[in-house]
């Protein structure tokens, strides 16, 4: 079976992990500090604050902006659930805006239409590794005095124009979960160019203490361990090459499948640097098989696939019935959730794997 993702810890990380274990410094220390400073040029931000995972990164980021009960956050219903859980955790109300089927990200016009007097922040998710069209929402957000938060959990090294993911938001987050483009098993990075926000994040991360037992705010323990920083650090040097490999794999797949009737291959939009966290096709009504049938046919031909994500968030009972979720229907997100299918694109695929994926697709669709 050709797997959808492969987790491979670089050799150099093994040495660093062992050194960290032997150093006696197991939690937030010099390796975490190195991870933060070496990620800074990648995200185009002066400040990087490493935390335990991407979900608490989002919670801390929104908390650092002062978001809480009574505030509204606008985001996409077509995302990993953490995006919404973080806002709910803080007591905020979540309102969704619809997406575009060209990049699977928030539709800027839909976002502008959702801004209301209580809206404090928009959380833009760069789904599958391609950045949302942030330029088109910049002026509506500025006019309304609404803050931008980037959920770049899937977009390490992605770009829009000359600017990297993470550099547009007042605060942005990245995940280091095991299958992300940079991984530590678990981990998260929060990025900002505001020293005030960075200062608040560092307090929140460590029980609200600036120095030991000097509490300045209510905080928590969001710290990352040295062992996790040791796993992630060597990947920063190879990130660009790994992302290029993903991109070359995506080009190969697109060349092999884009003529198939009813199949829409994912596109890199103008001005974007797509880092292909996922390679996600749409299986439309014109295809010979529906999405689930195609996934099954590919499985029997040795190709693992994934569905990210099977439904818009507000269609799950716990969210639809939640008092702080606005379940207004989003027609594009609902259609796309039934069409998406992710094929393997990870950097450890051999050319024979890519050829096998294309052959399986053509065979399954009788092309
Ligand atoms: C992975 C992910 C997160 C959460 O990250 P964790 O490190 O798993 O907590 C948040 N948002 C999106 C879009 C993600 O893909």
Give an overview in words.
This protein is α/β, with parallel strands linked by helices and 367 residues long. It contains twelve helices and 14 strands. The strands form three sheets. Strands 1-9-8-5-4-2-3-13 form an eight-stranded mixed beta sheet, sandwiched between helices. A three-stranded antiparallel beta sheet has the order 7-6-11, with no helix packed on it. Strand 6 and strand 7 form a beta hairpin. The longest helix is centred in the middle third of the chain and has 32 residues, at 226-257. The radius of gyration is 21 Å and the shape is globular. The two termini are 22 Å apart.
Question: In short, what is this structure?
Answer:
With 367 residues, this protein is α/β, with parallel strands linked by helices. It is built from 12 helices and 14 strands. Helix 5 (108-114) runs parallel beside helix 6.
């Amino acid at each position: 079976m050709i797997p959808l993702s492969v987790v491979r810890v670089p050799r150099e990380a093994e040495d660093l992990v062992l050194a960290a274990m032997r150093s006696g410094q197991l939690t937030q220390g010099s390796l975490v500090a190195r991870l933060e400073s070496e990620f800074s040029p990648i995200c185009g931000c002066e400040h990087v604050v490493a935390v335990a995972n991407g979900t608490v990164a989002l919670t801390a980021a929104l908390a650092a902006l002062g978001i809480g009960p009574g505030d509204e956050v606008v985001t996409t219903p077509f995302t990993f659930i953490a995006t919404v859980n973080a806002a709910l955790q803080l007591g905020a109300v979540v309102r969704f805006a619809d997406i575009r089927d060209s990049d699977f990200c928030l539709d800027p016009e839909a976002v502008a239409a959702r801004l209301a007097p209580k809206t404090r922040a928009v959380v833009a998710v760069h789904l599958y590794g391609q950045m949302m069209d942030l330029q088109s929402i910049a002026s509506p957000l500025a006019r309304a005095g609404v803050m931008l938060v980037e959920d770049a959990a899937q977009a390490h090294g992605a770009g829009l124009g000359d600017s990297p993911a993470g550099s547009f938001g007042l605060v942005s987050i990245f995940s280091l979960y095991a299958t992300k483009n940079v991984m530590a098993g678990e981990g998260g990075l929060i990025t900002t160019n505001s020293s005030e926000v960075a200062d608040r994040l560092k307090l929140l991360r460590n029980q609200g203490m600036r120095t030991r037992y000097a509490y300045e705010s209510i905080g928590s323990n969001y710290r990352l361990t040295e062992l996790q920083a040791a796993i992630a650090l060597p990947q920063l040097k190879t990130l660009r090459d790994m992302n290029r490999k993903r991109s070359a794999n995506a080009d190969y797949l697109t060349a092999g499948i884009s003529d198939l009737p009813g199949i829409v291959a994912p596109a890199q939009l103008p001005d974007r640097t797509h880092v292909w966290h996922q390679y996600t096709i749409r299986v439309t009504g014109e295809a010979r098989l529906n999405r689930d049938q195609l996934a099954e046919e590919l499985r029997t031909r040795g190709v693992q696939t994934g569905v990210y994500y099977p439904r818009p968030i507000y269609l799950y009972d716990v969210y639809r019935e939640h008092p702080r979720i606005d379940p207004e229907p989003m027609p594009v997100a609902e259609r796309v959730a039934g069409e998406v299918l992710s094929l393997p694109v990870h950097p450890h695929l051999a050319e024979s794997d890519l050829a096998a994926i294309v052959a399986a697709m053509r065979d399954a669709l009788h092309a």
